[in-house]
Amino acid sequence: QVQLVESGGGLVQAGGSLRLSCAASGRTFVTYGMGWFRQAPGEEREFVAAISWSGGTTYYADSVKGRFAISRENAENTMYLQMNSLKPEDTAVYYCAATRVPRLDISQAMNPMRYNYWGQGTQVTVSS
After folding, report:
1. Residue 10 CB: number of other CB atoms within 10 A?
2. Which of 46, 62, 64, 108 is most enclosed, with most CB atoms within 10 A?
3. In what helix (H) or strand (E) does residue 108 lie, and over which residues does it extend?
4. What is the rounded CA–CA span in Å between residue 128 and residue 120?
5. Given a cut of 80, is residue 62 above it in pLDDT?
6. First-to-final CA distance of the chain
């Protein structure tokens, strides 16, 4: 069983930056693939980024490519999402997720159904 807790959300002006963290419990964190998703009001949950167990493989949604960076520190059981050049359309609740599959291919990584564990989410609001 893995428990995930996100932090780092908040209110920021357009063009600003935030760093989200996802702290995981459990000794098996190092073997799990991880991902970030987001959900805006009235919208479906959408894929943001994913990272393999080692950090060697990463994927990004086209909408965040070049602005966001996903990383993980297995020794600290923590995953991060560095968000730069934020836009109002990035406003959403951001969720971290874990999958028992160490490394998903891109189509699998983008599918929320592939993830076994979810955090409660952290709100990110970008003002214009």
Report:
1. 13
2. 64
3. helix 106-109
4. 26
5. yes
6. 40
The dihedral formed by the CA atoms of 24, 38, 61 and 59, expressed in degrees to the nearest 10: 10
Q: What is the pLDDT of residues 12-55, one digit of tens each?
A: 999 999 999 999 997 778 889 999 999 999 999 999 999 999 99
The pLDDT value recorded for residue 89 is 97
Least confident of 4-13, 34-43, 77-86, 98-107: 98-107
Q: What is the pLDDT of residue 26?
A: 78
CA 71 to CA 80: how far, in whole Å? 5
DSSP letters, 60-104, are E-TTTTTTEEEEEEGGGTEEEEEE-S--GGG-EEEEEEEESSSS-
Q: Residue written as tokens 């805006």?
A: 40
Contact by Cβ (8 Å): 102, 53: yes
| In contact, 56 and 102? CB cutoff 8 Å | no
Token code pair at residue 118: 């979810």
